[in-house]
What we know:
By secondary structure, this protein is α/β, with parallel strands linked by helices. The chain is 45% helix and 10% strand. The protein is built from 22 helices and 15 strands. The strands form 4 sheets. The protein has a 6-stranded parallel sheet with strand order 6-5-4-7-8-9. A 5-stranded parallel sheet has the order 13-12-11-14-15. A two-stranded parallel ribbon has the order 1-2. Strand 12, helix 18 and strand 13 (533-537) form a beta-alpha-beta unit. The chain is globular. The relative contact order is 0.10.
Amino acid sequence: xxxxxxxxxxxxxxxxxxxxxSGTTRATPTVRTxxxxxxxxxxxxxxxxxxxxxxxxxxxxxxxxxxxxMCRQCEQTADHIACTTQGVCxxxxxxxALQDTLMDSVKSxxxxxxxxxxTPSIASDDPLLEQANVLTIKGVYCTLTNVNFSSSRIGDIxxxxxxxxxxxxxxxxxxxxxxxxxxxxxELAEMDLRDKSDIELEEFGHKHSGLVVRSAAxxxxxxxxxxxxGTYGLKGVCAYGTHVYQMVGKTDxxxxxxxxxxxxxxASPLPDMEGLLANALxxxxxxxxxxxxxxxxxxxxxxIPEPTPARTTAVQxxxxxxxxxxxxxxxxxxxxxxxxxxxxxxHGEMLPAHSYPKLKAFPHLVGxxxxxxxxxxxEFAAFPGPxxxxxxxxxxxxxxxxxxxxxxxxxxxxxxxxxxxxRDFVAVIEQxxxxxxxxxDVTPAKYHTTGFNHRxxxxxxxxxxxxxxxGALSRIFLIGxxxxxxxxxxxxxxxxxKTPDDSLILTLGCAKNRIIHNPELEGATLANGLPRVLDxxxxxxxYSAIVVATELAKALNCSVNDLPLSLVLSHLEQKAAAVxxxxxxxxxxxxxxxxxxxxxxxxxILNVLVExxxxxxxxxxAQDLKAMMEGx
Length: 632
């Protein structure tokens, strides 16, 4: 239950939004400054003002107070309303403002990308468009939860985006093109931030790019909710697209054309409800293509994954820990550490690396250490060697290990050493050789089997179908997604423990750690010998779950919604938002989402999702399980 203060704040915010949308506060506001923030955005919103009533004079000329930041993109947002001074993730208001500016810059770039592709004399494979593609996905990835906290690096990326945009804009105009309906996008069409300092870019974000400003510009709570759903889902698409780029070194022009068109729609302040709903579902459709491309890139580059036992206890010797998602970074590290007397361990979402033939061929890839991202401050501090974080999620490091943690790619934390695109790990290896490492083997050795990719599971469909028809398999549960630190995420553990002994659990993403390390489920099997819990991989491997579900439906000549399958998704950040939109775009119903529903979904939009897809929140595990066993 929320504390009374949070309830009062939520009710006040709801009343203010309602008043805003009714047009009551559309009068020109008075701008008031404060020592803490030397400007106030001229917006009609009064979110988080300390006042609760308006006098007649204030209603005519309302004074507007804007919080230091307004971020609600992740499930853990403060009081399930918004982070307004500092992010629960640790993000500062300054970094938040820069990220808002970066998103506006990408939207502006997208408008000119759409214009370029509509200009006949500019080829679809123009090198400038490829530069724009790469900056789009990488720039947006920097704004995801727990990726980049470095204001200086975000400022550099904004200026890179702006420079490429200026070149592209010049080329479009010289070739007789322009942005269609440029009036619709206001300053986004013509904004130029190339020569701005980090402080100026931060100020721009506070004044022009934040959630409060964009919400007031649209002036429709439900339309803006759809805009946010599309925005956060598209952030997830760009993250997955960056992982693909890491593997293959290029972008897909067709995918990026769609991404830029979606961003162009999101750049418009027009409250087009139908168009924004269609846009959100389009995000899900393009995400399915990106996930398929990532699945193929991993298999083509690292070999077809296969179920493999990964050691989860320490091996004596020097050690390096790798966290994140990027398999190619791990491959280069394994190459550079051959013969150096250093063992390599995976952490968190890197666990599935042990199932790829090209990676597990290295004998010094000895095991997996630790659990999910939210436990890293304890786990990293206890690890006796340097740590490399290749992608999300990273938390502000403790002093105990800040001098031995390294970031890569889009990950950024001020004061943390960053490894460049050349993937030179010399400094990491030398530091590992100087540290004690693990002093002895931990015995008895323990193992966890990972790698139940769709290529391994689909051939088992016959066994699964036979078990279901004979009554030996009562139901299939997909329980997975993004994990977090809140107490109510124990729901997923409890639910998994309560599932019948004759049911099958498919799990993936960092949320699987609540299941795969559970002693009540460890080693459990079905009557036909199949493991009860199948670890399908990273959140990046969501495609495998989709393939398994669709192939089972084909084999049984039914729809996915008619399968004896229940989907229970743990969401935290924007990759999970993209996956949810993919499932909804496929027409999949009866998804349970939690531990709480996103703060950016309004009651009216939630009603649409409930009516159309029967999207459900979480209740008590036992009651939810009873409903799921009944196919509800």
